[in-house]
Amino acid sequence: IFVNPSTNKHSADLYRAYLKENCVPKTYEALKGFIDADGLTAHTIDHEYSHPVGCTPESSEALGGDVMKLLEEGKATMLGNLADEYQNDTPENRLRLVARTVGRLLRFTHKETLGNPTSAPYVRENFVAITTLVESGVMALTEKGIVGNIEKAQSRVWFEHLKKFCVGVISAYQAHNKNNIRQLTQQYCDQNK
Predict the structure, then answer these.
(1) pLDDT, mean over the chain
(2) Which of 63, 72, 90, 155 is the most exposed place for a label (fewest CB within 10 A)?
(3) pLDDT-based confidence at residue 193 (cuts at 50, 70, 90)
(4) Which residues contact residue 188 at a Cβ distance below 8 angstroms, ignoring those fewer than 6 apart?
(5) Residue 88: C-alpha distances to residues 83, 92, 94, 96 (Å)
């Protein structure tokens, strides 16, 4: 697990800058205070602990590495968010998790990152985040920037979308179903939506 306090402090500063650059002012003001180095450390730990969930030697062998890689980063991050919310199911913590996720998705959706093949698993992870945030009504992409619905961000609505995604991936792993993984990838990671 790569956890470095100085790197996380730098990342927190970067995420806040991305929020300021890409969100409408009201959304930026609501989210910026929830991005900090300790939260990014917790996010990394939650993410890494979530990787083994649903993965078995049999599913890895049946699905193959290329298929397993399609949604594994997304599953780990979204499941980590669900675990964090389960431990602290307060409106404030839900908003904190949304803020971290929006900061992270802005990092991985820059034009230069989108075209970098080594970033592809993380780009897909963050398209899962975008899809679930938009479909849940927590976030809207507008010409003026990202608009957050703070009331919805504090509710469980986004987490229900995350649960649906994670259950879908884990069920496909357990069934050794490559087609379901590919369909979920199309559903959640379509950059043309």
Answers:
(1) 94
(2) 90
(3) low
(4) 71, 74, 124, 127, 128, 131, 132, 165
(5) 9, 9, 8, 11
